[in-house]
Amino acid sequence: MALVLEPITDIPLIEPGDDLAALIKGAIDLRKILIKDGDIFVITQKIVSKAENRYADLNQVSPSKRALKIAANSGKDARLVELILSESNEVIRINHGVLIVEHRLGFICANAGIDHSNLSHEANGKNLVLLLPLDPSASAARIRASLESFYRKQLGVLIIDSHGRAWRNGVVGTTIGSSGVPVLSDQRGWSDLFGNKLKITQVAIADELSAAASLLMGQAAERIPVVHVSGFPYPLMDMPFKDLLRPKERDLFR
Q1: Structural domain ending residue among the three candidates 130, 163, 186
Q2: What is the pTM of this model?
């Protein structure tokens, strides 16, 4: 079966408290898309955060002494630095305009994933930014449960964000939460074309799918927050998202 990714449009701008699963179902039904066992919904973090009201108003943030010091070294707004620190386990690097941190969820990213794009920043006198969901995998599980109830099918859900990478320029879609989707394929012991046994090969299949979906979603004004996937070449199963995260002692970039 071919891998097919279909962008889901007709999803309205999300407000706090919105039922994402119901809105996705409405858009799916409008497009008359057939949902089958094994299908996956890839969902951008931004609409999850908006529905969960993960907004922060910079005007209400009082920076600490540590935040003020880091702001002076990085050129960033001290209030934003304070939020980054509150969302992080550890600051890895500080450079002009960017903080590389270990997010409280365990992955390494820039500025704790706090985002300014596609927000009305000055609404009602507020200076808004958007934080990542408190628990993206729990969010994925809730959405998955609702969608499976709607369609009576075995489904998977990925929550994704755009992250940079240590080796390359540019951002790619990256999994930050999952439910019902295997995130890693351990192919050690498999044979190649010539019968040689693979020794270290583990494939981040959830990230590969996230990157493919992100191509359709775009990064600006495309308004494609959800991608429907059929033909995923691995059986669906529950696998902890943290299986994707490299232990600190094996991270050569720290």
Answers
A1: 130
A2: 0.92
